[in-house]
Structure prediction request, 228 residues.
Amino acid sequence: MQNSIQTWDRWQSAIILLVWVLAFQLDAWPLLFWTVALSFVVFIGMHWREWGHFKPYGGYPNYVTAFRLGLVFLLAILFPHLTDWQIALWAAVVIALDGVDGMVARYFVQESYIGAYFDMESDVAYVLAMSSILYLTGKVEAWIFVPALMRYFYVLVIWICGKAEVSAKGGNWARWVAGSYFGVILLPFVWDADMAKICLAVVAIVLVLSFMRSFYFVLQPANKKSDN
Prediction:
């Protein structure tokens, strides 16, 4: 199962990066949103047997994650019809549910590798959707896509270099940085524009540096890793 998930992740990353370039050049953003949605349909379909290991089918925590992911895609579609505060509130609900699925998984003893990956990739989809909304509403310039696309770029580079990720979740530092970014990305909708962009830029830089740190440890030779 782990191999099939990583295969999906690699191809998803390559395709989404390519589609993002097309969407950016052609101003065809629905193409990007539907591509991400389709990638999750493929992910769920590829692992239909694994979902059957949970009772009920799919498992309660993955129902929460799927609902959260649905809210992300709805927000990506409906944001032109929402006020800034409505967008921020909607995104805040998505962030809150990110913690709920983990609690549900522990309560029902349904923690799993596939569930962790589903949760993590849903987080990435949320960041990409919010970054696109910020750019399309003119609140932030195109640099916002650098942190939004880092996860896909990270997976693609590791694949090209013949490396593999060791786990679906990062360390405590990576989780703290990502969690902070989930909240800070809301600031341009509810706070002074210039101050919000400064805060967002600072945390975005830290997030990118976190990925650079991961690149360093994953790509260095095995003998050097053993020396650290």
Q: What stands out?
A: Residues 17 and 146 are 11 Å apart (CA to CA). The chain has a mean pLDDT of 91.
